[in-house]
Design goal:
Elements (H helix, E strand, L loop, with lengths): L1 E2 L13 H4 L18 H26 L1 E2 L3 E9 L1 E7 L9 H5 L7 H14 L5 E7 L3 E8 L2 H10 L10 H10 L10 E7 L7 H13 L3 E7 L22 H9 L6 E6 L2 H14 L2 E9 L5 H20 L7
Parallel strand pairs: 4-5, 4-7, 7-8, 8-9
Antiparallel strand pairs: 1-2, 3-10, 5-6
Length: 326
């Protein structure tokens, strides 16, 4: 038990006042020695003093404002621990490929991504979400949390100024670290949203692959296609002689080597992006163990109400007092 104003507890000795102070009455009798001893009256008088002591104690405790500690209760629900990795390279502020091809000004990729991601998490109840952004390097934005307001603020905060680099390796390395200090709830995933792909050196590739396998993290990669870009699913594409695969296709081939689950999506407009996120939503509704925080309770009001009820009882008993003898 904790107290907001513990100094009021110094008044607790006042609870003994009814036993120390003599009982006063407005009725004066000339001589009461001949009145026989009344055990029932003595018991009732003692109980009235106890009642008065309890009322004083309750009032003092109410002034000190006691409260209990918050509790954490484990429950079973549907959801996942999700690391959200957002590309913040400058190209994310461009319109979708479909919008440019139709010569219409469409919603930018970063705006559509933020809007749909917030809708995605608002529709779910038991997820723990962490946020990482990257451009030329990774930026830690939010640890795994169930606070929807914090998640919404973190996603909206990713719409700031961006750079012209796409260091996707740094983003994935930092995202795996989100799970290092958190107990596995039963389902873990990284959602990577990017409109491009930088190349990742072999050492970093091995580190990412090992971490995803160790922490049992699934990976969803949503590729926001560049105008005129090559599809990562184009199996007929053959690079020119001695040329490497485009970075996005190379990254796709690398992700397929993961021992942990992997699935890729492509989006050319907000509608196809929404479809991809909806499919992820269906796949990540697995039974998980999650903790629900039960806030502490302030008992001041309960104590005051109890003291009031006891005071009314004491007042009623006062009216039942015998005023005179016949």
């Amino acid at each position: 038990m904790n107290f907001i104003s513990p100094w009021f507890l110094l008044l607790l000795p006042l609870a003994f006042a009814p036993f120390i102070l003599g009982q006063s009455t407005s009725h004066i009798y000339s001589w009461s020695e001949m009145i026989p001893s009344d055990l029932t009256s003595k018991i009732i008088g003692f109980l009235l003093k106890v009642l008065g002591s309890i009322i004083i104690t309750l009032l003092v405790l109410a002034l000190s404002q006691p409260f209990s500690n918050q509790r954490s209760i484990e429950k079973i629900g549907e959801g996942a621990q999700i690391g959200l990795v957002l590309d913040r390279s400058a190209s994310m502020d461009d319109p979708f490929a479909a919008a440019e091809s139709s010569q219409k000004v469409g919603e930018t990729k970063s705006a559509a991504a933020s809007r749909l991601i917030i809708d995605f998490f608002n529709s779910r109840t038991n997820d723990m979400v962490g946020v990482i952004t990257f451009s030329n390097s990774a930026m830690f934005v939010l640890p795994l949390t169930q606070n929807k307001e914090a998640i919404k603020a973190a996603v909206n905060a990713t719409a700031g100024n961006a750079l012209f680099q796409t260091n996707i390796g740094a983003g994935l390395t930092s995202s795996a670290a989100l799970f290092s200090e958190v107990a596995d709830s039963g389902s873990r995933a990284i959602i990577l949203l990017s409109d491009g792909a930088g190349r990742i050196d072999s050492d970093t590739q091995q580190k990412i692959r090992d971490w995803f396998d160790r922490f049992q993290i699934g990976l969803y990669w949503v590729v926001l296609r560049q105008p005129g870009g090559i599809s990562i699913f184009d199996e007929d594409y053959v690079p020119k002689e001695d040329d490497p695969l485009p970075p996005a296709m190379e990254l796709y081939e690398y992700f397929k080597t993961f021992r942990s689950p992997f699935q890729a999506f492509e989006a050319e407009d907000p509608k196809s992006l929404e479809k991809a996120i909806s499919e992820i939503n269906l796949k990540e509704k697995k039974p998980i163990t999650y903790s629900e925080i039960i806030p502490g309770k302030n008992y001041s009001l309960t104590l005051l109400v109890t003291a009031l009820v006891m005071s009314l009882i004491l007042l009623v008993l006062k009216f039942l007092e015998v005023k005179s003898f016949r």
